[in-house]
Amino acid sequence: MLSYKNHTEKISLLKEGKITLRENVSFFLERIQKYSHLNAYNFIFDDCLHQADLIGKKIKDGNAGKLAGIVVAIKDVLALKDRPLTCSSNILKNFQSIYTATAVQKLIDEDAIIIGKTNCDEFAMGSSNENSAFGAVLNPIDNSRVPGGSSGGSAVAVAAYLCDVSLGTDTGGSIRQPAAFCGIYGLKPTYGRISRFGLTAFASSFDTIGPFARSIEDIALVLSVISEYDEKDSTSQNIYAPDFSTNLNSNKKFKIGLPKEYFAEGLNEETRNAIFEKVEQLKKDGYEIIDIQLPHTEYSIATYYILTTAEASSNLARFDGARYGYRSKQSGNLIDMYVNSRSEGFGLEVKRRIMLGTYVLSAGYYDAYYRKAQKVRRLLKQDFDKAFEKVDIILTPTTPTTAFKIGEKSNDPLEMYLSDIYTTSANLAGIPGINIPIAKDKEGLPIGMQLMAKQFDEKILLEFGKYLEKNFN
Questions:
Q1: Is this model's pTM higher than 0.85 or not?
Q2: Judging by beta carbons within 10 Å of its beta carbon (0-12, 13-18, 19+), is residue 335 exposed, middle or buried?
Q3: Nearest 5°: phi and psi at 192?
Q4: The domain containing residue 137 runs over which residues?
Q5: Angle formed by the axes of helices 216-226 and 102-109, to 10°?
Q6: Does 331 have pLDDT greater than 80?
Q7: pLDDT tens by residue, 55-110
Q8: Could you give the number of structural domains in the chain?
Q9: What CATH number is attached to the domain comprising 240?
Q10: Are strands 185-188 and 208-213 parallel, antiparallel or unpaired?
Q11: How far is 454 from 116, CA to CA, in rounded Å?
């Protein structure tokens, strides 16, 4: 197993000559092969050892970047030039990207080593990573259970020591939920903090890129590198990004809000008890715990699925077999080509969401569903704005249960969608959220706790997260 806890320790070992970067990358490659049954990766890049040699020399010469030698896996919805970009879908089978996503390029510019691309739910649509053309990803703690989705491969790659850190995307909980199921840290930044250029869009007003790691330090380090305004992304915000990795041990006594709506019926008893055990410890440590209300929470799932499916139906219209990607061999006329290519190329869940989105945008239903959902989204945002007038951080469960069995919810889409009941609100409001692993249930499965803060206040999430990591793990 690895002899370092985070990238800072790894750099020290490299500089002291106790390990070499080639040995380190080889360690990950060997584990990826050994644990190939987990199905975490869609593609492994065979030049990563060569990159290790080049960056190892830069470290020795003292001119390496901030992420020198950190081994990163990226979700297969992020573009990397001349590499496959499939979104775990047959409709993009064999497609090669012609450019690199801004967030990925920033990692490369700071001498990170990209080891491969991770499996995910097709086009990032799912909560279990069972909806992939490459097959389901398995939870490394219990292979009979799901790792969460849609960024399940990225979470498993970190949890199973198949890389140092990974990038995922979060549209309604797709970083935080798999982080909770796999027992690691996963951060969804504020919408607009990270450039979405080079991210294949699912729902453009929700999608966010963020890191997975086994430590708060590595989350903060990667966030610092990829946070910057990007003129190539119209939703990128030109807002100052601090060095998130400094002063993590501030021990400020933040005001913590507990929303009653997140602890109602449906929450697993072991999860509830684990969280309130931590809350009691926080009270003893001098933190002010405040009961708050987020009254429109009950509408978050319905609002989320109306708006995201509408955006998905629009975004995925480009995959028609005419310009790139899969084209049906049964194409007769132009309309047949469109219909057959999309019917054969897309998986069941993607087709379900396209149809739902097309329905809510259709004539006669637009006002009843889509327009109304946009109004509710504003009310949800206002709930958070009011709450953050009283508290610095909102503390909730990340998921209602621990990781469920593979196939357990596959035949009940609504039950599957409710897996995201505690995470979708942060995407609707555009605020940051992080999963903190806090305990294990009686079956040894990880329990996660979610922290949320106001927009562009990731720094306090990381500071408080570091306090929890240091004192409660």
A1: yes
A2: exposed
A3: 100, -10
A4: 1-473
A5: 110
A6: no
A7: 999 999 999 999 999 999 999 999 999 999 999 999 999 999 999 999 999 999 99
A8: 1
A9: 3.90.1300.10
A10: antiparallel
A11: 33
